[in-house]
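User: My advisor asked me to double-check a structure prediction for Serine acetyltransferase before group meeting. I don't want to rely on an old file, so could you generate it fresh from this sequence?
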Amino acid sequence: MIHTKEDLKRYLYADREAQPPHPNIILRHFDPIYRIKTLIRLCEYHFNLSSNSFYHKVAYYCRKLQLKRLEDRFCSEFAINVFDEGLVIWHPQRIIINPNAKVGKHCSISSGVVIAQAHNMCPTIGDNVELMIDCAVLGNIHIANNVRIGAKTLVIKNINAVNTTWAGIPAKKISDKGTIETPIPRPTAHL
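Assistant: Sure, here is a fresh prediction for Serine acetyltransferase from the sequence you gave:
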């Protein structure tokens, strides 16, 4: 979680390294993915410090309003204090994240991903996990590190096998190759 200015800088740097923004600083601010990730991190920073400071309360509500506009534009719901550093968002449309879920470092999510509660329990997702288009992770489950979840997959049970690929409804293991043998591709900066 982001509690200091140094934490904020570290998280923003890790997110930019995982998914480089446009090299032109002016065009960078028109990139919705860059704006969403930056606003998520700024909201986390100001929210975590808002109990002691009026400035951080006001700054949090201003940043949250900006984030809400982008969420409405892309029909998504991004929660704060969920993602660890190195977040990659491929397409920001229709992403729903429960605020009580926990996601590890270097997570990659695509359009239509749902990380949600079932019976008031939320999932915990490990490091280096790739969630592909339209997959859903529901309930009190744990997903191990270096796991790839295929498109249109429904995960309702724990995935304890490290470095595997899962697909189907409900999810079944289809490969022993996860994100170690075939790492999450790093997006290149716009040229």
